[in-house]
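Running this now, will post back.
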Amino acid sequence: YGLDAAEFLEPASSFRTFNEFFFRRLRPDVRPVDSAAEAVVFPADGRHLGFESLSAAEAFFAKGQRFDLGAFVADAALARRYAGGAAVFSRLCPVDYHRFHYPVAGKVTGPQRIEGVLGSVNPIALRRRLAFLWENRRWLTEIQTERNGRVLMVEIGATNVGSVVYTGAPSGGGVMKGAEKGYFRFGGSAVMTLFEPGRVKLSEDLVAARAEGLELYAKVGERMGCWTA
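Update: finished.
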């Protein structure tokens, strides 16, 4: 994969299985977190799509496919809270660092596991069937921020990835922006981050890439947007 083993927290020789390499830890200094108070950060290394609203997601993946937020979160009240808000879809490939982190600071509720299948979440598959996003197994966590409302973080299982291990704060606990939340075991996987309407302005490069039909590669801790208040 051409990775820099100097970034690994443990030496490559210590991995007993490919899976241990897959969910490897990194040295904290190689993924600095944007510490600005207004910054919201990417939750994972990977390829990201930023949508000012989920209606933009429908246009991006395929005309005629509606993003069913109610089915995705499996809760009508929760769907109403995030309807019309910004969303960022982060897709991880096998080559990527497979630990995911909190994009904001706050108090967490969850994760809530919703059972489902393990279909592919790569862009080609989603253009054919966007419903994989709400048919796949997934885990929901809400983060209550101090001044900027709530943020919903959803880990989505994919082909060969049916297990997630959580290492961060338990439900009801507080977390810092950029703190580790957990990791995926082997395979591709994805994270969706949803914001309440009017809370976040996504970074210009993220929005511009999606407008060109492209994913933006970025690393965990880098800025993906700013609070509007």
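The chain is about 20% helix and 30% strand. More later if anyone needs it.
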